[in-house]
Specification:
The chain is of the alpha+beta class. The chain contains twelve helices and seven strands.
């Protein structure tokens, strides 16, 4: 494999690792001329030490992106590529294919556009997604506690007045259209429970819902409904964008790394400290985008020509 570069990635690149952090490497490789001509190269080559389950701190994951795929993702403004392009710990050879990496880093500013702010919105949605799951888990567990106070053999109709309504709950009547039979139901986060079912069955179904949530959501529920890891990603990405729009680059570790680490460890209050900071970051990004001289879109022609030059210099000329 023609390796262009290989770099630490994730928390160990950002300077935000803990004793539980695993080791991730990301790299770039140059497909052979035959692979490029036939279009049968792999976009990503995975070399993982752990083929099963979630990684532990001793596991090492390595992925290599094919150069044309890396450029394509960079043109789309993918966060992973932007992170890689700012690595200062990348391993590469000064000669041979390492010069491709030097050229990529020297031209990384040509991937910057006003549209980069879109990934701040994506990360914001991720924060809300995991935070929302944590909140829902809290609510579902409280329902189990509430139902445990009643005889499991009773029907929901017998405890109807105790069943909550609100943002995640609806009480309504199911009508089969015959005008002869109607039955009340209690809807919990999109799932209907008819008034005729036993409390025991209702609890079983709610417990299945609880069990379907992943470990991150469960941890978020234990942390008061907040996924602090997702929050730390959002903060980091926001600060990186601010640096890109104000300085034209960012360095690891970020100046705000201490604050990000405290957020990651759940040492800050979300409502009074973290959430206002996230809003400030997003508002500042919106302002900086409006004031920015960056283009609306990446100059694809530049990168197409750049790739052709690489293929000519490093693959075709070598055949002569």
């Amino acid at each position: 494999m023609n390796i262009i570069m290989k770099s630490l990635f994730g928390s160990k690149l950002y300077g935000l690792d803990t004793h539980e952090s695993d080791t991730d490497y990301l790299g770039i490789y140059l497909p052979t001329l035959d692979e490029l001509l036939l279009g049968n190269y792999k976009n990503i080559i995975n070399l993982d030490t752990n083929k099963k389950g979630k990684n532990s701190s001793g596991d090492i994951d390595t992925q290599y992106y094919a150069l044309p795929y890396f450029v394509e993702l960079s043109c789309r403004g993918e966060t992973t590529m932007l992170d890689m392009l700012h690595s200062t710990v990348a391993e590469y050879q000064v000669s041979k294919y390492g010069s491709i990496w030097v050229s990529l880093q020297n031209n990384r500013h040509k991937f910057y556009t006003k549209g980069l702010k879109s990934y701040a919105g994506y990360l914001k949605s991720q924060i809300h997604k995991y935070s929302g799951k944590g909140k829902k888990l809290q609510i579902l567990n409280s329902l189990i506690t509430m139902l445990n106070k009643h005889n499991a053999d009773k029907r929901l109709s017998e405890v109807w007045n105790y069943l909550p309504t609100g943002e995640y709950f609806i009480k309504d009547i199911a009508d089969d259209g015959s005008r002869m039979k109607t039955e009340r139901y209690w809807m919990v986060m999109g799932s209907k429970y008819m008034e005729s079912i036993k409390i025991s069955y209702c609890k079983e179904q709610i417990q299945k819902k609880i069990d379907s949530y992943g470990k991150r959501a469960q941890k978020a529920e234990a942390d008061g409904g907040v996924d602090w890891k997702a929050v730390s990603h959002g903060l980091r990405a926001g600060y990186q964008l601010i640096d890109i729009y104000t300085k034209g680059y960012f360095n690891y570790p970020l100046d705000e790394s201490v604050f990000i680490m405290k957020a990651k460890n759940g040492e800050l209050d979300y409502e009074t400290v973290v959430e206002p900071e996230l809003k400030r970051i997003l508002n500042k990004i919106d302002y900086l985008v409006e004031e920015s001289d960056y283009p609306d879109k990446v100059d694809r022609k530049f990168w197409n020509n750049w790739l052709l030059d690489i293929y000519k210099d490093d693959l075709i000329d070598g055949l002569k």
